[in-house]
Structures are given as C-alpha cells and as structure tokens.
Amino acid sequence: MEKNNIKIKDHKFEIISTSGVYKTPFTIIILVEIFISGIIVVLLNLWYYSGIYYLLTSEKLFPFSPNAKWWFWLLLPLNIYGNLFLFLIVTMLISVIIFKILNKLYPPREGRFKKGSKDWKYVHRRFWTAYFPIWLARAMPFPWSDIIVYRLFGVKIGKSVVAYEGYIDPELIEIGDSSMTSLQICIFSHLIYHDEVLIKKITVGKNCVIGPHSILSPGTVLEDGAVLGAASYTRPNQILKGDLIWIGRPATKTFSLSPTKNSKENSTKKD
C-alpha cells in the first residue's frame, strides 16, 4: 500500500472513525484566538468603558476619556450585544489569516498519510484553527453567519445553500446551488483511523439534501438531486447517483424520488 494511494481497498476505512480529529498541542490556538480577539475588542471599546467610569466616579480614567452623559447607560445593552458580534468578526479574521498562512506553508492535498507526517500535522492545525470561529458562527442566531465563515475558510458553497447546525470541514469541500444540510450532520474531507489519515475532496451537487445525523466520508460525491437519508453515512469514495434517496449504514439502499414510480413498483411486487 503506497502512502498516497487514495483507492480504498482495505476494509478498515469502511468503518467511520468516531474519534474525530485527535487532540494535539495545537489546540492551544483556540486560547490564542480568544486572547487576541478579547484584547482587540476591549481596546476598541476603551472609550466607552472610560465614559462609564466617568459617570460612576466623575473622574477621567484616561486623558481621552469622554465627558459621558446619562444616555451612555442606554447604550450599555447595545454595547454588550454588539461586542458579541464584534468578537466573532475579529476571531474570524484572525483565524482566517492564520489558516491562510498554514495553507501557504503546506497546502492540503488528497491522499492517505501516516501519523506524524506533515499532512497529518497540518490537517490537525488547520482543523483547530477553523474550529472555534465555525463554532461561534453556528451559535449565532443568523442562518447566514456560518455560510460566510465557511466561505472565508475556502469551502466552495453555491447560491441558496442552507447549512443548519452541524460540522463541515474547512477544506476540500464543494456544495452546489440550492442544496441543504440538516441538523447534526458531519461532512468530513478527512478520516482518521488508528495511525492513518485519509484526505479526499467531497463534492455535493445541486439540489441535494443531507438528512439529519448523517455523515459524508472523504471522497463522497453526491450527484445533482441526490438525497442522503437521516442517520446514514457513506463509505469513502462512494458516489450517490442523483434523483435517488440513499439510506443505510453505509448508504446502499435507494428509493426513487418519484412517488408515482414507487407506487407502481410496490404494486408490481404485490402482484
């Protein structure tokens, strides 16, 4: 078996790894992102906090502290709420910069790699760099916030795509127009099993639906109009033909999307 062979012939990769990405020392990048973003948010709001201090003590905290008026108190709820979004934006921008630097140092590539290799290390580094801002975007009440973050990290997402709560890898993912992902889905362009990692592009065509609690494995291709049913998962490199409903663990059973066709088939079987 060659290192970069992406043809899955062994049975072991047919089992979906439940461990996700292994914890590495690079997870500290999340603390770095929180610290830097927090400092920037505080500095950008220093004038306002100085004004509040002036209202409480009648003394200026800094020479540039404004002579705040009573209406500064009315801005407090808006300031707190606005800073949540400011924190997201700053964290996102910092993470994207780090992510792009990592891609320049060692671009992602498809293949099958051993533990300890550069590909193994950098897939972890890119994962943890993008993890926190993606989590923040999914926690926001706006349905388009996670779409924006995914695109900034390089996920190719078409028009009118709906991405409900779930996880999508930040690299080697392409989702076509008018497709929809449901709750608690996972789209993994990487798969870890013991001491190997498989990295392969995932392509989701147009008008596809990925059902709740389902998993797409590396190399999966959903042709236009394909539907992956709830609580199903695909094998690596599996191709799901379009205009069919696929279900199973792994997804091997299919149903036509046409109710009329299904009714005719069921009537034929009964006869």
Structural features, described:
- This protein has 271 residues and is an alpha/beta fold.
- It has a single domain, classed as UDP N-Acetylglucosamine Acyltransferase, domain 1, CATH 2.160.10.10.
- It has six helices and 17 strands.
- The strands form four sheets. A six-stranded mixed β-sheet has the order 3-6-11-14-16-17. A five-stranded parallel β-sheet has the order 2-5-10-13-15, covered by helices on one side. Strands 1-9-8 form a three-stranded antiparallel β-sheet, covered by helices on one side.
- α1 crosses α3, α3 packs antiparallel against α4 and α4 packs antiparallel against α5.
- The radius of gyration is 24 Å and the shape is elongated.
- The N and C termini lie far apart (50 Å).
Query: How would you write the strand order of the largest sheet?
Result: 3-6-11-14-16-17
> What's the overall geometry?
elongated
User: How many structural domains?
Assistant: 1
Please give the number of β-strands. 17
